[in-house]
Amino acid sequence: MILVEHTLMKSFFKLFLRNEPDAHKIALLYGAIMAQARNKEFFIRFGLSDDFETRFESLILHMLLVMRRLGTEGQPVKQALMDFMVSDLDRTLREMGVGDVGVVKRMKHFMEGFYGRMHAYDAALNSVDKKEILRALDRNLYGATSTDLAKLDMMRDYIDMQTGALAVQPTQDLLDGKISFKSF
Predict the structure, then answer these.
(1) Count of domains observed in the chain
(2) HEC string for the chain
(3) What's the pLDDT tens digit per position in 56-68?
(4) What is the residue range of 81's domain?
(5) Residue 74 and residue 89: Cα distance in Å, rounded?
(6) Per the domain annotation, does 182 fall within a domain?
(7) Where would a tag sit more exposed on the chain, N or C end, judged by fewer CB atoms within 10 A?
């Protein structure tokens, strides 16, 4: 009985939520972002430590690049991507053995960090001062290491390269979960 009611409610709400992105497409898009964010070559080339915090920082950076590319026309996809990321982080914490109270505390911390970094990177990329992105990267992605201007410059070039690669991809491809990052 409950299953039937749930199915009926879902069908009823789908009448009003026609713009809801396809979950499979969101999973494909998130999977591609996560693969790029965890690419071993990325960590080696840019001198990043391969730990949980830095992987999270890398995920934020790559999510930002895709979200900036999607712009306002991709708002439903951007929201679905965020929801997918939150679910993935929650699942990951639980698999690591973190209890309910700990998950809530950590998720709050993660989301504050996520939005703060998204804002910092977005403002830096919109700034006329090209050094702003270096400062944002130094505070966040490279926050656990000593400042290395050469690596920061390389990372800025990487961001420019990926931004250019994403810019030429048709928006509909991105909305359909098809994305390709430029190789190193």
Answers:
(1) 1
(2) CHHHHHHHHHHHHHCCCCCCCCHHHHHHHHHHHHHHHCCHHHHHHCCCCCCHHHHHHHHHHHHHHHHHHHCHHHHHHHHHHHHHHHHHHHHHHHHCCCCHHHHHHHHHHHHHHHHHHHHHHHHHHHCCCCHHHHHHHHHCCCCCCCCCHHHHHHHHHHHHHHHHHHHCCCHHHHHCCCCCCCCC
(3) 999 999 999 999 9
(4) 22-175
(5) 22
(6) no
(7) N
